[in-house]
Specification:
Blueprint lengths: L1 H17 L15 H4 L1 E10 L2 E3 L6 E4 L6 E5 L4 E9 L2 E9 L6 H13 L5 E7 L9 E8 L4 E6 L1
């Protein structure tokens, strides 16, 4: 009788332990283009409803594989670091931290406009253009937009 009670106790503990009450949480990146756009991107053009801005310095956007919402790069003169959730719903830029190095007036103006426009973007699009010549690679364009504000940032990889 003691063996049977012990066996029932062990089976009961095993059954209770194996039943999990964890709630299913869907992966917000399941339908994201984030994995296909990881890497370093170079700003080619930027504009808003006021018009296009001249880009007189190298501005980069880096989307690393991990963390999945990480973002950093060079804003021309300074370096920046922040978060960007890229899901099937769009582009959501979080807080951006920027170093505080001073540069020439033109580069600082370009940097200021870039850092103003980036958080306004809410849509991300990837365009893959065929190679121009036989020995060239395809051209990949990353376009961040906010149609309501007339904002468009265009990057190439």
């Amino acid at each position: 009788m003691k063996k049977l009670a012990f066996l029932v106790l062990i089976v009961s503990v095993f059954v209770l332990y194996s039943c999990s009450t964890q709630k299913y949480v869907p992966d917000p990146y399941a339908n994201s283009i984030r994995p296909s756009i990881c890497g370093e991107w170079f700003l080619q053009s930027m504009r808003d409803s006021e018009g296009a801005y001249e880009i007189n310095t190298e501005i980069t956007l880096v989307l690393p594989e991990k963390p999945r919402n990480g973002m950093h790069g060079s804003s021309g003169v300074n370096l920046y670091n922040g978060t960007a959730d890229i899901t099937d719903k769009g582009f959501f830029c979080g807080t951006i931290a920027v170093t505080s190095v001073d540069g020439d007036d033109e580069a600082m103006e370009t940097e200021t406009e870039y850092l103003r426009l980036l958080p306004l973007c809410d849509t991300v699009t990837l365009e893959i253009l065929p190679p121009q010549e036989e020995d060239m690679l395809e051209i990949r364009k990353l376009i961040l937009t906010n149609k309501a504000e007339g904002v468009q940032l265009e990057f190439i990889q």
